Amino acid sequence: MAAAQKRILVVVTNVDEYRKAGMRTGLWLGELTHFWDVAEGYGFNMDIASPSGGKVPIDPESLSQEVLAELGTGERYEDREFMDLLEDSKRISDIDIEDYDAIYLTGGHGVMFDFPQSRQLENLMARFYETGRVVSTVCHGATGLLNVTLSDGKPLVRGKRVTGFSWPEEELAHRAQAVPYSLQEELKKLGADYSTARKPFESYVVEEGNLITGQNPGSARSVAEAVIRQLTTA
Fold first, then answer.
1. pLDDT by residue (tens digit) across 85-118?
2. How many domains does the chain have?
3. Is the pTM of this model over 0.90?
4. Domain containing 141 — which CATH number?
5. d(Cα 12, Cα 31) in Å, to the nearest integer?
6. Which domain holds residue 68?
């Protein structure tokens, strides 16, 4: 099947603040734009969805001039047509799985609060995985795997090789006191075979069949490349 005929569902957060701290959060913009740049370059079409639908908040730290320049997201941020896509995301409950061949969960700390609380997202992830579609996450997007149970009653991540934002990275990002839990530890508790890059914030991607996970924001492009490889060789 040609790339133009395949579609990827990109899932983002609706949460704009932490619960224990006054800091604001939301989507880490680069985790969307880096994946989008790669997939679009290969001719893939994408839709953006969120648990509640509607406007997508963006983590203000991902919009600093330093980050925009360093991570190469500035061009997308200045693109009116692209940024308008974040004004009215689709609601997860309205998604028809038959319209998509892959799902990609972005990060940003906001997802720690709404991804694991969305029963609709959990069900969607399980259906994507069990029908052989590509399931992918980056950074905190792996929180969307925490409560996903397959039809055999087992957690999706049990016995699977995965990665996601590590606790040392939380500490280096000065968010250890603000986050509601350690993603690293929660994945391990579920029986996942969790691993990381040798150094914090190095790009790192793990492929376990049709499950693809990336450790941190710098891994988004590599996750996209892995997703595309699977979609184009299927």
1. 999 999 999 999 999 999 999 999 999 999 999 9
2. 1
3. yes
4. 3.40.50.880
5. 10
6. 3-233
